[in-house]
Amino acid sequence: MTRLAGRPAEPAGARPTSLLGRDIGHLVPPGAAVPGLVTLTGCDRAVWESAAGYLRVRDNDSHTLYSYGLATALLAQTPEARAEVVLPAILLHDTGWSAVPEEHILEAIAPRARRPELVRAHEIAGARIAREVLTDLGFASADIEEIVAIVDGHDSRAEALSVDDACVKDADKLWRITPHGLRTVQRWFGLDADEALRLVSIRTHAHLHTAAARAMAGALGALASIDLTAERAALADG
Ligand SMILES: [Fe+2]
Ligand SMILES: [Fe+2]
Fold first, then answer.
1. Average of per-residue pLDDT values in the chain
2. Ligand lying nearest the CA atom of residue 171
3. Which numbered ligand comes closest to the C-alpha of 175?
């Protein structure tokens, strides 16, 4: 919501004043009635609680949650994919970075990376962690095998094994063009916002597997590039 210049901050918990002069809060629907909103549900929350301890390096925890949101949006457009495979796989896919020394991770994920063996190492470790977590949580063995295979190759394998794998790969890559992804890439590699957008866009669009992800990438890139136009920057609301 836009805050008028000079207006003091609202007290915590207070409803912001409506510019209409009347309260329309009663017209806001409950979240369950709104399409497109995402929360972690049921067993996904249990997988996250098991995975989160392995994701506390290089923003992998935030990356994982945003990718979970994108995976959920992809599933809504890809009815042949199975949420019970895609969502645990995206929550677990980068847990293996916990087995790679943090000081080496940027060298592994940088453009023209010099340490491809570390990318492979995080996939192998992630596959092992995924198997342990899913076995502990009582997942069906066939789903465990599919999820482990997706994690073990999510970066190094260019082709998708299945539509489930395609959704995981696309959700992982789409994160790069989100506001959080772009800020993270800027910080990691010392780029300005325009450089970061151009770098991630050229490394994302051509590598997506689903039509839904290509449409999402187009929308995310369009918004990010409008943010960088002189016309947008000149507007008073920043
Ligand atoms: Fe990864
Ligand atoms: Fe990832």
1. 91
2. 2
3. 2
Residue 168 CA to residue 93 CA, distance in Å, equals: 9
Query: Residue 87 carries which DSSP code?
Result: H
Confidence of residue 68 (pLDDT cuts 50, 70, 90): very high
């949650």: which residue's tokens?
65
Instruction: Report CA(1)–ligand 2 centroid distance (Å).
Output: 31
Please tell me the number of the ligand nearest to residue 154's CA: 1
Has residue 209 got a pLDDT over 80? yes
Q: How far apart are CA 79 and CA 76, in angstroms?
A: 6
Tell the CATH topology of 40-228. Answer: Hypothetical protein af1432 (1.10.3210)
Q: How is the chain split into domains, by residue range?
A: 40-228
- Count of all residues that appear for the chain in the document: 238
Q: CA torsion, points 202, 207, 211, 213, in degrees to nearest 10?
A: -70
CB 122 within 8 A of CB 94: yes
At 57, the pLDDT band (50, 70, 90 cuts) reads confident
187 contacts 147 by C-beta, under 8 angstroms: no
Integer distance in angstroms from the first to the last C-alpha of the chain? Answer: 13
Q: What is the pTM of this model?
A: 0.91
- What is the DSSP-derived secondary structure letter of residue 183? H
Interval between CA 225 and ligand 2 midpoint (Å): 23
Task: Please check the confidence at residue 114 and state whether its pLDDT lies above 80.
Answer: no
